[in-house]
Amino acid sequence: MNRESILKVEGVGKSFGGLEILRNITFDVKKGERIGIIGPNGAGKTTFYNLLAGDLDPSKGTIYYCGQNITNLPNYKRANIGIVRTFQKNNLLTDLTVLDNLLLVLQRKEGLGNVWFKPRVEKHYSILFEKARELLSKWGLEKQTHKIVKSLSYGEQRQIEILLGIATDPKVLLLDEPTAGMSQAETNYIVNLLHTLPKELTLMIIEHDLEVVFGLSDRMIVLYNGGILVDGDPQIVRNDKRVNDIYIGQGESLSASS
Ligand SMILES: Nc1ncnc2c1ncn2[C@@H]1O[C@H](COP(=O)(O)OP(=O)(O)OP(=O)(O)O)[C@@H](O)[C@H]1O
Predict the structure, then answer these.
(1) Pocket residues for ligand 1 (CB within 6 Å)?
(2) For a surface tag, which of 115, 199, 254, 255 has the fewest beta carbons within 10 Å of its beta carbon?
């Protein structure tokens, strides 16, 4: 099947001062692809997300989204057109409730971002409240609705962070280590949730848990020393000697994570 290209990265590089962190990154992402991004610590994975999400400008190269050159488009404009990221560390407003965090995201999505500082009276914003409750119910999180975020466990907070990303209705969702620091049950919750996302949503997943990333991806990109070492079918990546050598060097085995 010939799927439409949604994201295209051509010859992208990033240097900090004289230090080249990423070089000549080139690939094409089709709508609805599920791409796992793996590589050892310091390979440049997060820097690469910073370039895709507009949190950093590349030193070289061009990034296209739906055919539009977005290389220097700021992060909030990319979020508005559908490129949304989650972070390795939580980015929530921890003194607010789960519902309030969700309402803030929904408000922005509905173009009501300018009223975020006003008290949200349900009768004036019933559409937002309805949508928030619908999402919390769909995700099985009704019990968390009125909990203050900082009272939740680290893993629960990470779940909420990912759910906020999904609530914005992205076209491309960039997940940065979605299961880091989670218990097995919390990891299973996230994996199941990601499996239920609409097929047309394009997902990119940086993940150190190889079982999780191989289970979710239909394509894998291996970053190593700032470049793409392998880009292809997960089975090919799993059997690639160079990739195995890197992971065995780190004390891990790719073949164990089937
Ligand atoms: N702002 C910066 N200034 C200088 N060097 C940086 C900056 N940001 C990242 N680096 C360096 O770039 C390299 C790649 O970092 P990056 O965080 O992208 O790697 P990573 O693959 O995401 O690693 P990890 O798996 O540990 O999160 C590292 O050597 C890091 O120290």
Answers:
(1) 16, 21, 39, 41-47
(2) 199
